[in-house]
UniProtKB/TrEMBL annotation:
Protein name, entry field: ABC transporter ATP-binding protein
SUPFAM superfamilies: P-loop containing nucleoside triphosphate hydrolases
Function: Part of the ABC transporter complex HmuTUV involved in hemin import. Responsible for energy coupling to the transport system.
Keyword Zinc: no
Key words of the record: ATP-binding, Nucleotide-binding, Translocase, Transport
Pfam families registered for this protein in UniProt: ABC_tran
Boundaries of every ABC transporter domain copy: 4-237
Keyword Transit peptide: no
Length: 261
């Protein structure tokens, strides 16, 4: 188990403070990070990995992340970035195999444990049949599944996934959430940036909601995703049900009035 903690975490990009004084700690379960476009979600998760300069402090298992090497962080926390562009014409199998790099010594080769992890990750994400395809020639949805397989192949005790459902059709989006749920149920920490409110309500144990860079809600989905919060943060009127959990935006709220989308 890995514990990730942010203490008064702030990030400025240029003259704009994108993340403002965010504090939370998480050690296990599926934690969704929600918020409208530009709320600071991707910047927050990058700061948690030490990928952007920040004020405040990030700790990984009580150790300030600034004291850890990139290899140490990569072995503890697998990272699936948002909308990653592929530049090299690798096969799917070789791309997924990159997930094992944090465990390899320089100039070493994959061993049986590495190959087992790669095969298991491809099978779980249902991309085994694509193994010999060139990754740069895949559709957006296929590429998203392959990149999730690469992150799962790391077999790290924590996973941070930035919009892992991007480009996925409804069936594969459900499957993606089932995989993240399974990782959490196995005792791992999964922190996922999400936009689908219903999937977040259905699958997540806890939600962190950002608005204008600040953490404005932190708690169980049923408590967090209220009509008031959806109106204030997203500017929408939504249909809300709890059995099964549903949060369906119905109309935008413009100047206090509802406007059809």
């Amino acid at each position: 188990m890995v514990k990730v903690e942010a203490r008064e975490l702030s990030v400025a990009l240029g003259r704009r403070e994108v993340v403002r004084g965010v504090s939370f700690a998480a050690g296990r379960g599926l934690v969704g990070v929600l918020g409208p476009n530009g709320a600071g979600k991707s910047t927050l998760v990058r700061a948690l990995l030490g990928l952007v300069p920040h004020a405040g402090e990030v700790r990984l298992d009580e150790t300030p992340i600034a004291r850890l090497t990139r290899a140490e962080i990569a072995r503890r926390v697998a990272y699936l970035p948002q909308g990653q562009t592929l530049h090299w014409p690798l096969t799917v199998e070789r791309l997924v195999a990159l997930g094992r790099l944090p465990h390899l010594a320089p100039f070493s080769r994959l061993d049986e444990a590495d190959r087992t992890a790669i095969e298991h990750a491809m099978a779980r994400t249902e991309v085994t049949a694509l193994r010999h395809r060139t990754a740069t020639e895949l559709s957006g949805g296929e590429r998203a599944r392959v990149l999730l397989a690469r992150a799962l192949a790391v077999e790290a005790p924590a996973l941070i996934a930035d919009e892992p459902l991007s480009s996925l059709d409804p069936a594969h989006a459900l499957h993606g959430m089932e995989l993240l749920r399974a990782e959490a149920d196995a005792g791992r920490l999964v922190l996922a940036v999400l936009h689908d409110l219903t999937l977040a309500a259905r699958f997540c144990d806890r939600l962190l909601v950002l608005h204008d860079g600040a953490l404005v809600a932190d708690g169980a989905p049923g408590d967090v995703l209220s009509a008031e919060l959806l109106a204030r943060v997203y500017g929408v009127r939504a249909f809300i049900a709890d059995d099964p959990p549903l949060r369906v935006p119905l109309a935008r709220i413009v100047d206090g009035a509802n406007a059809a989308t």
